Each structure stands twice: as C-alpha cells, then as structure tokens.
Amino acid sequence: MVTYLDKILYASENGVYNYNKQLGVFQKDSLLSRIFPSGEYTSGKLIADAQHDKLWGFSKKNISYVSPGKFSDKSVITKIPIPQALRKEMVGYETISFLMDDTYLFGTSSGYIIIDLSKIDLKSYDIAINSITNYAIDGEVFSVNITNASNFSDKENNIQFNYSVAEYNKYLAAEYQYKLIGYYDVWSPWSSQPFVLFKNLPHGEYTFKVRSKVGNNLSNNEALYEFYIAKPWHLSNLMWAIYIITLIVLGVMVHHLYKRYYRKQKEKLMLKNKRDLELKELESEQQLMQLKNETLQQDIENKNRELAISTMSLIKKNEFLNQIKEELKNTDDQKHVKPVIKIIDKNINTTDDWKFFQEAFNNADKDFLKKIKAKHPKLTPNDLKLCAYLRLNLSSKEIAPLLNISHRSVEVKRYRLRKKMHLAHESSLTNYILEL
Fold it and tell me: Where are the coiled-coil regions (predicted)?
C-alpha cells in the first residue's frame, strides 16, 4: 500500500485500487491498472517518489512510472522496456532511488542499474530477411536469392527464413512475429527466435511476412518475400486435362454400357411381356377351346340323348307291333287279320325309321359309318345297321326288335360280322366298334 498525490493505493493481480474516503471502500483505478497488463503481474510492488511526483511499478516486461500530465491533470504512464529476466531483482523487494536530475538507481540481486530518463530514446527499427534456405526432399540444401520471387518445385517445399533487426541493446532483446499468407494467415506469437522453418508446404502461392519489436517499439516495416511452389506432376494442368478426358471417356463408356444394359433389360422385359401375352392368349385359346369342347360335348350328349330316345322309341314301337302281330296270329278270323299283319310287317321293315335313325346317329357320331365302311368295305347295309346299334352299346336283346329278328338271329349276325372284320376270338366286337 502506498500514498501518491494524496491517494491511498494498493495493487493486486486484478489491478490498482484507490481508496474512496467518502464511501470508505477501495475502487479500481482503470488508468493506474495499466501498469500491470494482463499476464505481466509480478509482486504488485509500488514505489512513490513524492519529491518528483512519480509512482513506480514493476511488471514482467517493463519498469513503469506515473507522472502528472504537462497540459492536463490526467496522469501519464511511461514504460521503460527492461524485462524482469534482465533486471533479476528479488520479487517483492524491488527498490529504486533518485540520484540527480533524471537519473535513478535501480537495485538488482547482482548489482545496480542506472537509469537516465533523459537518455531513454524510443528508437525505431527496421527488420530484414537475411537469408532463405531450401531443404529439398531429396536431401539437397541450397540458398535462395532473396531479391527476387522464386518458383520452387513440389519437392522443394521445406523452406527456412532467417531475419533480424540491425540494432543491439544490452538490456532489450528483439522479438519477432511472422505469418505465411496462403498457409498460416494469422500472426504468430512473439518469439526471440530469429528464424522459422516451414516443412512440407503444399503447392500454391505464398507471401512470407515478418515484423519485430524491441521493448515496446514495433519495427517500422514488415519484411516480406513472395514465392510459389509448383504442383506435383500428378496435379499439373496436363494431368488434370488427362484426368478430365479419362473421366469423360469413362463416363461415355459407362453411359453406353448402361444404355446397352438397359436396352437388353428392356428387350428382355418386352420379350417376357410378349411371352406372357402369348401365354395368356394361349390360355385364352385353350379356355375357348375347352369351352368349345364342352359345348360340343354337350351337343353330342344332347344328340346322343335324342338318338337314344329315338332308338328306344323304335324299340318300343317294334316291340308293340310284334306283340300285336302275335296276338293277331292267334285269332280265328285269319281272313280279316292277314291284311293287318301285312301292314304291321310293313311298318316294322320300313326304311324311314332307319333313315331317321341314321341321320340322328351321324349327327351324334359324325362320320362313324363312313370310317367303318372305309376300313371294312365288304360290310353290307344290314351290317352297318348292326355296327351302329353296337356303337350305341345296345345288347343283342335290344337290337333284335330294331332289326325285326330274333335274339338268336342277332347273335348269328354278330358272329358273321366278326368274321368279316377278321377279329380274333378273344377280341370283343363291341369294344372294337366303340374304340373306332
């Protein structure tokens, strides 16, 4: 805690505080707090020189003093760039004493430093790039002409820059800050190292910039150097052209391949659709054919029923006429009966019934009589009648009244018909006729 210009002050890491007598509290003084910038606080030691109205403070990079302004009541802070590393004082025990005029004596752990405020000259400095060294990938090391911009191959992408300021100060060391536009576009932290090495830089255009400061004074200039690192051969314009042409050719090939593939797929799909359509048409035709066959079968069945009805009618009629005939033969009045018997025989033997039957039979079993006649040309009309009745699967007993003969006579006719057809003894005549 110290008194300066009737102010009670104390310092901490958070700044310098002034005691407010009216409120009875310490309040932060924003102006005096600049003695200790952020990150530069050491002990917070303040030394007041009441005789010369100066307030001294010590930070990591500077010795600062506060004095009244010449043209206003506002205090002025002056910083002397002597860093703690050079002062080597004992932290918390810093001392400074007035000697004469503007000369002060500053104590360190190894002696004293005399500071003449009148001779503190805030000089300006220039920075220059001294040399550039290129370390190629193949191991070659060579110096670069710093007066002209350079073009490096893609294998010459390890570059070191050496720089300095042309000024020596035994208390102050120069610090440097750089950036490489195109790769590292922000200023680097301050460093006392007078060189920087960039490794494995990618291809492109670059501008290297460097500046310096001695104490709190920045250099007047920024030294810069422009250079270019060429693309590797596989990224050259020629190779890009080849890549683009290759991609175009591949694209065209792929397009044609896909086009051909999709054309084949389309053809397969069309063929499949065609086959499906043909199959559906075939199914439709089969269904139609089945429907026609069913209709035809129905017609055949209907005609067979008609044929069966007509045949049974003939059988019934002939049986009835035969019964009447037999009854008439047993009467005594043969003179009047004989004309009636002749009429009955005429109805039994008439060919009209056979023609009606033949027409109905041909409608039901088309061309059967023609086929059997062609196969067995020696068959007589009576044989064909018997074949037709057998085709209807009628028994000999049912056939007898149709032919107006006895059952025994039908059997004889069947035997003769077998001989004409040359059928084996074990073969069935009815089955043979049904299978034709």
Answer: 274-306
- Give the Å distances, CA to CA, from 355 to 310, 349, 359, 413, 414: 12, 12, 6, 21, 22
Is 163 buried (19+), middle (13-18) or exposed (0-12) by CB count in 10 A?
Answer: buried
CA distance 379 to 385: 10
Token pair listed for 56: 């001294």
Residue in this structure with the two tokens 């089945």, named with its chain if needed: 290
- Measure the CA–CA gap between 209 and 161, rounded to whole angstroms: 10
Together in a domain, 112 and 157: no
Asked if the structure places residue 279 within a domain, the reply is no
What pLDDT band is residue 168 in, cutting at 50, 70 and 90?
low
The CATH number given to whatever domain includes residue 394 is 1.10.10.10
Summarize pLDDT for 305-354 with one digit per residue, the tens.
676 667 667 767 777 777 787 777 777 777 777 887 777 777 765 556 66
Tell me which residue has tokens 């004082």: 89
Question: What contacts 124, CB < 8 A, 6 or more positions away?
Answer: 217, 219, 220
Pair 175, 210 in one domain:
yes
Please tell me the pTM assigned to this model. Answer: 0.48
- For 254-302, how does the pLDDT look when each residue is reduced to its tens digit (9 = 90+)? 999 999 999 999 999 999 999 999 999 888 888 888 888 888 877 876 7
Report if residue 340 sits inside a domain.
Answer: no
More confident position, 81 or 122: 81
> How many residues are there in the chain?
436
Q: Where are the beta strands (DSSP E) in 182-282?
A: 195-198, 204-214, 217-218, 223-229
